[in-house]
Amino acid sequence: MADQTEQQILAADAATLHKMGYAQELSRRMHGFSNFAVSFSIICILAGGITSFQVGFSTGGGLTAIVGWIVGCTFALIVGLSMAQIASAYPTAGGLYHWSSILGGRRIIKKTKWFNMLGLILVISSVDLRA
User: Fold this and answer.
1) Which of 39, 78, 92, 127 could form an SS bridge with 98, CB 3.0 to 4.6 Å?
2) Three-state secondary structure of the chain
3) Is the pLDDT of residue 82 over 80?
């Protein structure tokens, strides 16, 4: 695959999408650094991560913060790998909502919607509480 050009790879991807019943509509120009930049800006390290250090240091000390980062990163990696596996089977721009409609039906869509909203509210309020 190293000897294929980028155009050949994109054509093969479009053919794979066509086999799955999807049409290639969006351009694929995002590379590694662009993907990292979008992910880094969504994570919001300065507002969310740094303000939560105080809780770990005041309640359990440095060891708690280190172990917490290791455990948290491990679980985040597991969730990310699971979502990557689903994305490889069902490529879509809808992400979580589209996957839940395919895999779980209407009952799961409602739960997904409410858990996502609850998570966003809790993240925003925890950052604001610590800032």
Assistant:
1) 92
2) CCCCCHHHHHHHHHHHHHHCCCCCCCCCCCCHHHHHHHHHHHHCHHHHHCCCHHHHHHHCCHHHHHHHHHHHHHHHHHHHHHHHHHHHHCCCCCCHHHHHHHHCCHHHHHHHHHHHHHHHHHHHHHHHHHC
3) yes
Is there a domain that residue 7 lies in?
A: no
pLDDT at 74 > cutoff 90? yes
Record the tokens describing residue 35, joined without a space.
């993907």
What is the domain count for the chain?
Answer: 1
pLDDT digits (tens, 9 = 90+) for 22-69: 888 877 777 788 878 877 777 766 666 677 777 778 888 888 888 988
Domain housing 41: 31-130
Quick check: is 43 in a domain?
yes
Determine the pLDDT at residue 94. Answer: 72
**Residue whose token pair is 């409410």:** 114
Evaluate whether residue 47 is within a structural domain.
Answer: yes
